[in-house]
Design brief:
Pathway: Amino-acid biosynthesis; L-histidine biosynthesis; L-histidine from 5-phospho-alpha-D-ribose 1-diphosphate: step 8/9. Helix content is 48%, strand content 19%. It is α/β, with parallel strands linked by helices. The chain has two domains: 142 residues, HAD superfamily/HAD-like (Rossmann fold, 3-Layer(aba) Sandwich); 68 residues, SG protein - dephosphorylation function (de novo design (two linked rop proteins)). It has a seven-stranded mixed beta sheet with strand order 4-3-2-1-5-6-7. α1 packs antiparallel against α2. The model has no long low-confidence stretch (mean pLDDT 94).
Length: 232
């Protein structure tokens, strides 16, 4: 039986209280695996600033982020990612985020993470949440190595809508087939996908997205308020 509802989740600062792309680059830099650590951190910070301002393109991000993959063998990358999951990601997964996901999974909803971060970084994270489908920016892979380039349409801004439509079409479905569709996101970059679902949810929203959500009457969900309280 086809699920009646669709639940889509952004990942960084939505299900996680951090940015997995940024943290992966930072992890490689501080463990001496990203060339010049100071330069890697400078570029990482610059990309994050531009992303938060809504001024970053997928190609600009790929030049640095996918270049980190191209510089190393898949074996080394996989080994380091296991460390990354243990040290950075799993300690950051909160019961509150797990509960939101589990509510949709238990209801039989079709669930997917839809993230701009590349699939190498995010596939193990999706598995940790128990989410069966991942729509991520695809890193091109040829002759046993990552090339440093994007393959296909990046899952970013309007590209997220394109990629969701393509994914659903592969199952002979469209958004219109679902009685209800949800998308949870923190970022103003995700407004295009938030606008096409029946239940847009501004989850831990940036100030810019919070303002849009309040203007349009979208639900606002703050999953990580307890983390702010713990730091204060």
């Amino acid at each position: 039986m086809m699920p009646q509802r669709l639940a889509l989740f952004d990942l960084d600062h939505t299900l996680l209280p951090l940015d997995s792309d940024y943290q992966w680059a930072d992890f490689l830099a501080r463990t001496g695996r990203a060339g010049d650590p100071a330069e890697a951190r400078r570029r990482n910070d610059d990309l994050m600033d531009r992303y938060n301002q809504g001024q970053l393109t997928a190609e600009q991000a790929a030049e640095f982020m996918l270049g980190l993959l191209a510089a190393h063998t898949p074996f080394d990358l996989a080994t380091w990612h296991e460390e990354f999951m243990t040290q950075v990601i799993r300690p950051s997964i909160t019961p509150q985020a797990i509960e939101i996901v589990d509510q949709h999974l238990a209801a039989g909803d079709l669930c997917a993470i839809v993230t701009a971060t590349n699939g190498f970084v995010t596939a193990p994270i999706a598995r940790a949440f128990g989410i069966p489908h991942l729509i991520a920016t695809d890193a091109e892979y040829r002759n046993g190595r990552y090339t440093g380039r994007i393959q296909g349409t990046p899952s970013f801004k309007e590209g997220k809508v394109v990629r969701v439509d393509q994914w659903l079409a592969g199952m002979n479905l469209t958004l219109a087939n679902f009685s209800e569709s949800y998308f949870y996101s923190d970022s103003i970059n995700d407004v295009p996908l938030l606008e096409v679902v029946t239940h847009p949810v501004a989850a831990n929203p940036s100030p810019a997205l919070r303002e849009i959500a309040q203007t349009r009457g979208w639900k606002v969900l703050d999953l990580f308020e307890h983390l702010k309280d713990a730091k204060s």
